[in-house]
Amino acid sequence: MPDVTARHLAEGSRNVIRIASRPRRTGAGFASRAQCWVYLPGVHRKLVLFDIDGTLLHTHGAGRRAIHAALFNEMGAEATASRVRFDGKTDPQIVRELLAEAAHDDRDDDERIAAVCRQYVDLLAVELEAGTCQTTVYPGVVDLLNRIEARRDTVLGLLTGNVAEGARLKLGSAGIVPDRFRVGAYGSDHHERSRLPAIAAARAEGLMGRIPTGPDIVILGDTPADMTCGLEVGARGIGVATGSYDTAALLAAGAYAAFESFAELEPVIAAIYA
Ligand SMILES: [Mg+2]
């Protein structure tokens, strides 16, 4: 019988064990210890991260109006005629680009940009509560979230350019409980979207017993930026054409798979867990 020791890892990952053999001598005379991870039924082996705008829901311009108003109130910058695109970007990045477009003196001032984002959250709450245009949830989203959330092998999470409080407001306005997403990485964590997958993965460690990497991280989103942001950690991007980009554009950006919508559930589930 080989001498095998198994040790449970972090609380919340009782089904993850690490198995290590007794140290043995190699041909070069060095001791080595073979080690591998064993995943038992019920283990969290996938981190599935959803973008919000254009992927789960549509706020009919509430976010854009709130950012424009915050920018004007806080910085005196008029941006309603701006040509800056919002999709695929983080909130601080959007504010920075709007200020750059207006050639504002404080366009690189992180403190001022953070102040605009704070005011944006207040104004977004007003916009969403005004109820002038109800938030729309895209077809299949509710069923897809329910299916993924019910799986014991998966941690459901968010990866969004929204600042954290803005994300909660938008989800709440759509009747989606924010706390069902057990991990999140937000625009308030970093203004570069490409930095967010590693942040989400690190935050999932306590739930998964390890920092996930490669295709164990799945990012679902509606823009090429969603598909490319996880390149550094080897994440799998899955596109949905409910935003401004079609499936061809999402595939060209490197999506593992792309769908017109989440209305047909099984192919999406298959792409996530393939
Ligand atoms: Mg989006």
Tell me about this structure.
The chain has 274 residues and is an alpha/beta fold. The protein has helices spanning 62-75, 91-101, 110-130, 141-150, 164-173, 196-203, 205-208, 224-228, 247-252, 265-273; strands spanning 4-8, 16-21, 24-25, 31-32, 35-39, 46-50, 57-58, 136-137, 154-159, 183-185, 217-221, 236-240, 257-259. It is 36% helix and 19% strand. A hairpin with a 7-residue loop joins strand 1 and strand 2 (16-21).
Q: Briefly, what is this?
A:
Helix 2 crosses helix 3 and helix 3 packs parallel to helix 5 (164-173).
Describe the secondary structure blueprint for this structure.
Blueprint (H helix, E strand, L loop, with lengths): L3 E5 L7 E6 L2 E2 L5 E2 L2 E5 L6 E5 L6 E2 L3 H14 L15 H11 L8 H21 L5 E2 L3 H10 L3 E6 L4 H10 L9 E3 L10 H8 L1 H4 L8 E5 L2 H5 L7 E5 L6 H6 L4 E3 L5 H9 L1
Parallel strand pairs: 6-9, 6-11, 9-10, 11-12, 12-13
Antiparallel strand pairs: 1-2, 2-5, 3-4, 7-8
The structure holds magnesium ion.
SS element count, helices: 10
Show unreliable segments. 1-37
Main beta-sheet annotation: 6 strands, parallel
The CATH architecture category of the largest domain equals 3-Layer(aba) Sandwich
H/E series: EEEEEEEHHHEHEHEHHEHEHEH
Query: Could you name the CATH class of the largest domain?
Result: Alpha Beta
Helix proportion: 25-40%
Structural class computed from helices and strand pairing: alpha/beta
- Order of strands, main sheet, comes to 10-9-6-11-12-13
List the ligand species. Answer: magnesium ion
